[in-house]
User: Which sequence fits this backbone?
């Protein structure tokens, strides 16, 4: 069945698969102490234009978020995000499981604004009982957001400045970072993003890798014992070279951004198909996640032919459904969906 269910339902890009096969008989040290991880670290430092950035490879997104947040917060501190933030909705309370409250604030177009953060922090610090409360210690955002929206250059710069003003760390979840950076509306590059946060991660799982994420500390150095904290969270891979090989490949000859650009091109075709068949969009995402509104009858017919997700059910019976393109989406996939919609 043709699938638009997610951007991680394929194995991995052929370039990575070949590298893994070609190096299969190599014998290297574990836990990232291998030449492939060291090469990947050098390439990522070059990509972010920071020779002293601290880079670590972890096995998955949920482990990465929980590990980074836990490593940066004291026991009495919380992390701030928007109400639709991934750590607040779709990570099964992983952050809270390690003792840190997730404070949710209203979003503007699914993004956290500097003005919203300022209002919250000004109110919090003015409260005479604030010492009795969980203390805000950092801010979490994703780029792109859960609804596929992209922070603009000014929005990101203003948010980072607000974080500094309130002595908060800014952490960017980059599970789909490549798709955000390659969006037509993105007005900055990876080095700009790296200079406007304290730590972020480059998502591999959803952008061509078999698995794995690369955590990059740019505005600060990695916390003491971060490596040990990674292991404590079950996010350390013994066969670390499996991660190093993948990121070394992704950051060779611009592969990471080429794969991301392809997904954006496929998403543009997807939007054209939906428009041609008068399928309304739930929001105008500029990235690889597209959200449409289907009637129950449209859903019943289409789900039997194409895999996709229900995002939200509405009181009138209609459904917001998510269709996701990726590095692996083909023109043939889009053409098939086009034919299915024509038959509705």
Assistant:
């Amino acid at each position: 069945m043709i699938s638009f269910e997610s951007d991680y339902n394929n194995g991995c890009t052929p370039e990575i698969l070949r590298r893994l096969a070609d190096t299969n008989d190599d014998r290297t040290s574990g836990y990232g102490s291998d030449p492939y991880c060291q090469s990947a670290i050098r390439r990522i430092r070059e990509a972010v234009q920071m020779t002293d950035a601290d880079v670590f490879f972890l096995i998955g997104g949920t482990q990465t978020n929980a590990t980074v947040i836990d490593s940066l917060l004291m026991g009495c501190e919380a992390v701030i995000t928007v109400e639709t933030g991934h750590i607040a909705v779709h990570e099964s309370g992983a952050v809270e499981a390690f003792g840190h409250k997730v404070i949710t604030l209203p979003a503007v177009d699914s993004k956290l604004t500097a003005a919203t953060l300022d209002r919250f922090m000004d109110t919090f610090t003015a409260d005479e009982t604030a010492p009795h409360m969980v203390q805000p210690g950092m801010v979490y955002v994703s780029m792109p957001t859960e609804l596929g929206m992209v922070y603009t250059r000014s929005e990101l710069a203003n948010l980072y400045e607000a974080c500094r003003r309130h002595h908060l760390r800014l952490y960017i979840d980059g599970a789909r970072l490549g798709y955000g950076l390659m969006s037509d509306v993105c007005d900055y590059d990876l080095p700009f993003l790296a200079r406007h946060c304290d730590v972020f991660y480059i998502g591999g799982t959803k952008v061509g890798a078999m698995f794995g994420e690369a955590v990059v500390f740019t505005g600060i150095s990695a916390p003491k014992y971060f490596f040990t904290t990674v292991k404590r969270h079950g996010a350390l891979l013994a066969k670390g070279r499996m991660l190093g090989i993948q990121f070394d490949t992704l950051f060779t000859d611009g592969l990471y951004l080429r794969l991301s650009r392809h997904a954006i091109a496929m998403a543009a075709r997807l939007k054209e198909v939906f428009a041609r068949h008068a399928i309304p969009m739930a929001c105008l995402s500029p990235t690889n996640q597209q959200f449409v509104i289907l009637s129950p009858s449209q859903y019943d017919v289409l789900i039997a032919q194409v895999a996709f997700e229900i995002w939200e059910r509405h009181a009138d019976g209609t459904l917001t459904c998510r269709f996701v393109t990726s590095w692996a989406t083909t023109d043939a996939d889009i053409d098939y969906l086009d034919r299915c919609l024509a038959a509705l």
